[in-house]
Each structure stands twice: as structure tokens, then as C-alpha cells.
Specification:
Blueprint lengths: L1 E8 L11 E4 L2 E3 L2 E8 L9 E4 L8 H16 L8 H24 L1
Antiparallel strand pairs: 1-4, 2-3, 2-5
């Protein structure tokens, strides 16, 4: 199966730097545009598109958004493909809690 994806991440007109990030498949990016057809592996049970908002100028918002998406990208590939919907949902919730704890820890350090 092929998906056609277009994602754009832009600094906008208010701030001097962009803290937001986008995850499309396995690509994480902050500025620019990704566009094109993505071929999905027939065994793939999950395809990811995620956006992390850098919190509009909050201290190290760009660090937090990068941590979230990189951890999400690496964590999702560890979820077994033979799980039922509830187990996948539970695994994603647990992953999100782990990522949240990491962001909190990084914020304190």
C-alpha cells in the first residue's frame, strides 16, 4: 500500500526560531517540508504521523519536542505486531507515560 504524505513545519511570523517538530514515518524534522509517496510494508501494523508543539517560547521547548518525537519513533518499533487493539493501545499509553517522565526529568536536570 502507498500513502501520499505532505507535512510542513514552519517558524511562522511571530518567533525567530521554530520549536515545533513533526514525525512522519521514521523521519523527524523541524523546518521545511516532506512530501511524497511512502510505501508501507505489508506487515506494518502502524504508521506514525505526530506533531510536538514546542510551547511557544517556553524554556527549551525545542528540546522537549525533539525528545518526544525521537522517543516515540524509537519506542513504537518495539511494540510487537501480533497484539490485539487493546494491547497496542495499552503499549502506546505506557510509552507515552515513559516519554512524559523523560521530558520531566530533562526539565529538572
Amino acid at each position: 500500500m502507498k500513502l501520499r504524505i505532505t507535512a510542513i513545519c514552519d517558524v511562522g511570523s511571530v518567533r525567530g526560531s521554530n520549536e515545533d517538530m513533526i514525525l512522519v514515518g521514521e523521519r523527524v524534522f523541524r523546518d521545511g517540508r516532506v512530501q511524497g509517496a511512502i510505501e508501507l510494508d505489508e506487515r506494518a501494523s502502524l504508521f506514525t504521523v505526530a506533531i510536538a508543539d514546542g510551547m511557544g517560547g517556553a524554556n527549551a521547548g525545542e528540546v522537549a519536542s525533539q525528545i518526544v518525537l525521537e522517543e516515540l519513533r524509537s519506542g513504537l518499533v518495539t511494540i510487537p505486531t501480533n497484539l490485539d487493539d487493546k494491547a497496542v493501545n495499552d503499549a502506546i499509553k505506557a510509552l507515552c507515560l515513559e516519554i512524559h517522565q523523560r521530558v520531566l526529568h530533562e526539565g529538572i536536570a
